[in-house]
Amino acid sequence: MLTKTEAIVLHSIKYGESKMVIDMFTRQHGRLSFMASLPKSAHGKLKKQYFQPLTLLNIEFDLRPLQQLQKLRDASLLFPLSTLLYDPTKLSISLFLSEFLYHALKSEQNNVPLFDYITSSIQWLDNCEDRYANFHLVFLMHLTRFLGFYPNLEDSGELYFDLRSACFCHTVPLHRDFLMPQEASIVKLMMRMDYPTMHLFHMNRQQRNRCIEVALLFYRIHLPDFPDLRSLEVLKELWAG
């Protein structure tokens, strides 16, 4: 069935001389993998540059639910990215986010609010000129709301944070997946931030890197087989202040 939808590119890899396998998160059908034949002519419908990480597309394809690879027929830019793939700092963030989403959305089905959140976040970062050092922290923690393990911030004083149940508690949990009170405050800090106000939360590189480590630990507990991310070390080197 010929289908049109919006999509976010998560990952692409060359296949043979003139084909690519592309993983995308689509607005109407969730996570899908595609096979695309790239034309030799510059006038073809499918262009290699369309399949860079986090590119936002309108796509047309043959939907065959039982097939592992869908056949991509056409693609056009939904929202041309003006800085995200060209600014070195933003590029490092985009490579981290695309690798993160590639694993976090591994089995994600149709979820329009989730798609819209990711799309609006990508557009926000692309348009932002400065003071976005905490962007990835806000993105990861608020994404949990759409994946079903958003932290419960009630009763969030000087308490432990149970990473499994995603809530604060007065006593030490009967397992090892928890944060001591001094680090539990990291969760509360990250959940207080949003894109317009995140620049007000001043952190040095060490503090910011500890925040991302805690956030990724939280994801590993709630998403089976979530791996270590290769792009994390590059991200950690950003923002010396």
Mean pLDDT: 91
Strand order of the largest sheet: 1-2-3-5-4
Would you tell me the structural class of the helices and strands?
Answer: alpha+beta
The string of secondary-structure elements, in order, is EEEEEHHHEEEHHH
Description:
The protein is α+β, with helices and mostly antiparallel strands and 241 residues long. The chain folds into two domains: 2-77, OB fold (Dihydrolipoamide Acetyltransferase, E2P), CATH 2.40.50; 130-236, no CATH class. The protein contains six helices and eight strands. Strand 6 and strand 7 (167-169) form a beta hairpin. The chain is globular, with a radius of gyration of 19 Å. The termini are far apart.
What features would you highlight for this structure?
241 residues, alpha+beta, OB fold (Dihydrolipoamide Acetyltransferase, E2P), 5-stranded mixed barrel, 3-stranded antiparallel β-sheet, 22% strand, globular
In short:
It is built from six helices and eight strands. It has 241 residues and is of the alpha+beta class. Helix 2 packs antiparallel against helix 3 and helix 3 packs parallel to helix 5.
Write the layout of secondary structure elements.
Elements: E1 2-15, E2 19-26, E3 30-37, E4 56-62, E5 70-77, H1 88-104, H2 112-127, H3 135-147, E6 160-162, E7 167-169, E8 178-179, H4 181-192, H5 205-222, H6 232-236
Parallel strand pairs: 3-5
Antiparallel strand pairs: 1-2, 1-4, 2-3, 4-5, 6-7, 6-8
Helix pairs in contact: 2-3, 3-5
